[in-house]
Design brief:
Number of domains: 2
CATH architecture of the largest domain: Orthogonal Bundle
Number of helices: 10
Number of strands: 0
Helix content: over 70%
CATH superfamily of the largest domain: Tetracycline Repressor, domain 2
Radius of gyration: 19 Å
Structural class: mainly alpha
Largest sheet: none
Order of helices and strands: HHHHHHHHHH
Strand content: under 5%
Length: 212
C-alpha cells in the first residue's frame, strides 16, 4: 500500500534531455521557494510556474498537480539524505565501528542542517504527499548501506542486526526532527550531533559486539 501511495504522486514523465532536466530543476526549486514564502495551503501550480519562469502547460507536462510537485521536492530531499549517508558509509568501510557510527551520524545531521528550513516545511506536508512511503523507502536504503559498512568493521563480533540499525535510524530521525521543529540554535545542533554520536555508538556496540 505504501509503495502504491508513492507511485500515485510520481511525475508524469522523467526529463531526458539536458534542457528538460534544467526545467524540472527550476520547477522544483520554485516549489521550495513558494512553499517557504507562502506555505503549503497557498502553494499553487500557477505560483510555482510563475516563479520558475515557465508556462503552466510546461509544468503540467511533468507534474499534474500540487501534490506531485511537493512529492518531487520531498523525494529530492530524501535522496540527498540517502546519498550523504551512503557516501559516509562507503568512506568508513574497514574503520573501527565507533568511527563508522560517528561518520554516519554526522553525515545525517549535517545534510539535514544544510537546508533546515526545507526540512521543517516538508515535515508539515509529508503525510499528505506520500511522505510515509518515501520515508520507508529511504529507511530501507540507509539500512542497506549501514549494514554493508558494518560487515567490514574489524571489531564486529555479531552480524549486524537490522532491527538495531532501524532503531539507530529512528533515534537519529527523531532527535533531528525535534531539534528542527524547536528552532534549535547552531550551538544546540552541534550538541545534538555530539550526543547522537555517543548514543548511537554505545547502542550499536551493545547490539553488534555482544558487550554488556
Amino acid at each position: 500500500m505504501a509503495a502504491d501511495t508513492a507511485v500515485a504522486f510520481e511525475p508524469r514523465k522523467t526529463p531526458v534531455q539536458a534542457r528538460a532536466t534544467v526545467t524540472v530543476g527550476a520547477i522544483c526549486e520554485a516549489t521550495i521557494q513558494v512553499l517557504l514564502s507562502h506555505g503549503a495551503d497557498r502553494l499553487t501550480t500557477t505560483r510555482v510556474a510563475d516563479r520558475a519562469g515557465v508556462s503552466v502547460g510546461t509544468l503540467y507536462q511533468y507534474y499534474p498537480n500540487k501534490r506531485s510537485l511537493l512529492f518531487a521536492v520531498f523525494e529530492d530531499h530524501m535522496d540527498k539524505v540517502s546519498q550523504a549517508v551512503e557516501v559516509a558509509c562507503a568512506d568508513a568501510c574497514h574503520k573501527p565501528m565507533p568511527e563508522m557510527i560517528r561518520r554516519v551520524v554526522e553525515a545525517f545531521v549535517d545534510v539535514k542542517m544544510q537546508r533546515a528550513d526545507i526540512s521543517i516545511a516538508l515535515y508539515k506536508v509529508a503525510p499528505d504527499v506520500g511522505g510515509p512511503a518515501l520515508v520507508k523507502r529511504t529507511g530501507q536504503r540507509l539500512r542497506k548501506a549501514i549494514e554493508a559498512m558494518l560487515l567490514t568493521a574489524p571489531d564486529l563480533k555479531l552480524s549486524p542486526d537490522r532491527f538495531a540499525i532501524d532503531m539507530m535510524l529512528s533515534a537519529m530521525s527523531g532527535a533531528m526532527r525535534s531539534a528542527l521543529e524547536a528552532g534549535a540554535s547552531p550551538a544546540m545542533f552541534r550538541k545534538v550531533r555530539e550526543h547522537l554520536v555517543l548514543l548511537c555508538q554505545s547502542y550499536m556496540a551493545a547490539a553488534t559486539t555482544g558487550d554488556d
